[in-house]
Amino acid sequence: MPLNASAEAKATAEQTISVLQGGHYSWQKGWLKRIPGIYARLLNYLVPYTKTVIAAMFFMVITALTSSMIAVLMGKLTDQGFYAKDVSALWWAPAALIAVALLQGGSTFGSSYLLQKVSQQVLLKIRCEMFEKEIRWPAANYQKYTSGIVMSKYINEASTALGGAAQLLTTIVRDSLQLVALLGLLIWHDWKLTLVTLVVAPLIAVILRWVNKKTKKYGLQTQTALGNMMNTVLEAYQGQRIIKIYDAYEKEQTRFRGVNELLYKLSMRMQAVTAAGTPLTQFVTMAGVSIVVIVALLQAQAGHLTLGDFITFLSALLLLMNPVKKLSALNGSVARISAAAESLFTTMDEATEKDPGNMELPRLLGGVRFEHVGYRYAGAGRQALTDVSFDVKPGETIAFVGASGAGKTTLINLVPRFWQPTEGEIYFDGIPQSTVTLKSLRQQIALVSQDVVLFDDTIAANIAYGMENVSEEDIKQAADAAYLTPFIRELPEGLNSPVGPAGQKLSGGQKQRISIARALLKNAPILLLDEATSALDTESEKYIQLSLDRLMKGRTTFVVAHRLSTIMGADKIVVIKEGRICEMGRHEELLAKKGAYAHLYNIQFVQKPTEDKIQSA
Ligand SMILES: Nc1ncnc2c1ncn2[C@@H]1O[C@H](COP(=O)(O)OP(=O)(O)OP(=O)(O)O)[C@@H](O)[C@H]1O
Ligand SMILES: [Mg+2]
User: Fold this and answer.
1) Lower CB count within 10 Å: N or C terminus of the chain?
2) Does the residue 482 lie in any domain?
3) What is the 110 CA–ligand 2 centroid distance (Å)?
4) Whose CA is nearest to atom 14 of ligand 1?
5) pLDDT of residue 23
6) Are 27 and 135 found together in one domain?
7) Which ligand 1 atom minimizes the distance to the CA of 407?
């Protein structure tokens, strides 16, 4: 094949695919080359189920053969029952027909059931593998993929790939076998007549392909339109207050009508294609059958063909329609499956977090030292942190202050190695962070962040999250120390009350105290605290402060501080400016310096910022 011809074929194929997929999947050049790899990988998942797959294929062979049997039976019945008026046909014909029907039904059930079983098991396995990988990703990956895209992989891509693969296997094995068996029967019966038939066959294939192509195109467009409709409903639902306050009823209705009208048009086009496809195919089929009938009649008159032969031939011809239909849709499903599988495997091939250290960190006293630590986010133009060095003694509290975007959160995230320092090293009791395992490092660290994460479970389970062999007494103590007891006592189910999805049933302050109880129970030597900026009511604030004081006691605490009391109580205050340490010391010392800290202190705590100050800042 000349070079440009193959390149052209590839380009056309790529175009077709991207149209089929509505641009949903990201296509890279050379995907055709990768198809065998993708299929090899999918097939690899079948290895443990080899026996089941072989059994399913065995059933498919039976199904394929039964259609030929039906054609043969019809012929025999005509010859012996009608032509020769053989009385025995009265019992064997219905018996044989019922037997074949049972065989066909049974084998179809067997193959579908077994294949579904395998594909559902593989689906389960792939989903679990993907999840297992996904929760171990490095932090950067969660920014790379939106949650919506990842969700669609679990739902759409996973089932498209596996449901499609099962269907594909059926088509390849059963329908092609059926085609071969029926064609064989035709040729064996009358090769000349078969030749006549084969003239019409391509015509039918062309019509079916056209119908398929159009259906797929409108099908995908319909899916997008459906998505848009749901999105419009969802947005109107979430934005109901905005719609009311801006009197936007008309606007939303027009938008919704527009989306729906498109959906209507697409559905009608789809209907037109499928509605036209069936009679069109029937017409061509009948045209073919007419030719066959003419030729057959001519042959019969010459005495070459019995009525039974003719019936067998005709039945086989009509039975051929179904496998032809399935096989002509083959290339579409191949494209869909490889697209979905590639999308799945790309995500599954994402590397998990690097964990090169092999030393198990022993229980720490809590000394932490930063030495010339720098960090630059991948792809960022400038350093987020530069040359950060400080030393915290066990049990001390170190507070970080600075303007928004200065690098405080980044610094805190380096301690459990959520991000890996790009320069310098962090030492824990003198042990370099890069030499220890992530697991043993993170065991020593508790985290209380401003956006509390709760799971859809009970209060007790949320407090004991990730900890094994925790007694109810321990949980009660932690809850009590976090001043949760009065609140829990009022709940009918106490500690075992559900918190709702993402803790929806709780107030902001209650959620925060649960996360403090969780950190208390973990009893780690190092505590990371990203204080909430939003002010809670003073009562709640008081209890949170009290429980935090308990939590910080005896632990090395890194705190991004927004409360004056936390800062004043800190052993060391680090002022960060554009990723660098610009001042460090205790509250009084830094105030006396009248530098950056004194300035921050003045605008944040001494007087509320005025319009002027914000504008000049
Ligand atoms: N995931 C990220 N990817 C790329 N850049 C980031 C990322 N997170 C933060 N940055 C950048 O790094 C710098 C420091 O951000 P950081 O979140 O550490 O600031 P911060 O001091 O915690 O600010 P704030 O007080 O507003 O929380 C900012 O310039 C920010 O844009
Ligand atoms: Mg921050």
Assistant:
1) N
2) no
3) 59
4) 407
5) 35
6) yes
7) 18
The pLDDT tens digits of the residues spanning 553-587 come to 899 999 998 777 778 889 999 999 999 999 999 99
Whichever domain contains 24, its CATH number is 1.20.1560.10
CB-ligand 1 contact for 404 (6 Å cutoff)? yes
Residues 253 and 362 in one domain: no
Question: Cβ distance 373 to 388 under 8 Å?
Answer: yes
Last residue of a domain, one of 353, 387, 414: 353
Q: Which two tokens mark 295?
A: 């030729």
Q: Six-digit token pair at 252? A: 């939303």
- Pick from 400, 408, 580 the residue to mutate for probing ligand 1's pocket: most ligand atoms within 8 Å of its CB: 408
Report pLDDT digits (tens) over 340-385.
788 788 888 999 999 989 999 999 999 999 999 999 998 888 999 9
The beta strands (E) that lie in 281-413 are given as: 368-375, 385-392, 397-402
230 with 274, same domain: the answer is yes
The residue whose C-alpha atom lies closest to atom 22 belonging to ligand 1 is 409
Compute the radius of gyration of the chain from its Cα atoms: 36
- 46 and 185 part of one domain: yes
Which helix (H) or strand (E) is 530 found in, with range? strand 526-530
- Looking at the fold, whether 186 and 329 belong to one and the same domain comes out as yes
Q: How many CB atoms lie within 10 A of CB 234?
A: 10
How many residues are there in the chain?
A: 617
Which residues are bridge partners to 222 per DSSP? none
Q: If you ran DSSP here, which 8-state letter would residue 202 be given?
A: H
Distance (angstroms) between ligand 1 centre and the Cα of 580 equals: 13
Q: Write down the residue that tokens 């009938």 correspond to.
A: 293
Check pocket membership of 402 for ligand 1, CB cut-off 6 A. yes
CB atoms within 10 A of CB 314: 18
Q: What is the rounded distance in angstroms from the CA atom of residue 491 to the CA atom of residue 511?
A: 15
d(CA 244, CA 264) in angstroms, rounded, equals 28
How wide is the angle at C-alpha 172 spanned by C-alphas 167 and 175, nearest 5°? 90
Closest Cα to atom 31, ligand 1: which residue?
405
Q: Is 376 in the pocket of ligand 1 (CB under 6 A)?
A: no
Q: What SS3 class is residue 559? A: strand
For ligand 1, atom 17: residue with the closest CA: 409
| Ligand 1 lined by 600 (C-beta under 6 Å) | no
Residues of the domain holding 99 = 16-190+308-353
Q: Which of 409, 534, 604 to mutate to test the pocket of ligand 1 (most atoms within 8 A of CB)?
A: 409
Q: Is residue 468 part of a domain?
A: no
Are 291 and 317 members of one domain? no
CA of 364 to the centre of ligand 1 (A): 29
List the CATH number of the domain containing 584: 3.40.50.300
- 8 A C-beta contact, residue 327 and residue 171: yes
At residue 607 the predicted structure's pLDDT band, cuts being 50, 70 and 90, is low
Domain assignment of residue 267, yes or no:
yes
| Residue at 500 is within a domain | no
Q: How many domains does the chain have?
A: 3
Give the closest ligand to the alpha carbon of residue 377: 1
**Ligand 1 atom 9: the closest Cα is on which residue?**
410
Last-in-domain residue among 323, 353, 383: 353
Q: 81 and 172: one domain?
A: yes
Give the H/E segment covering residue 582. Answer: strand 580-585
Neighbours of ion ligand 2 (CB under 5 A): 409
- For residue 504, what are the contacts with CB-CB under 8 A and spacing of at least 6? none
Asked whether residue 345 falls in the same domain as residue 367, the answer is: no
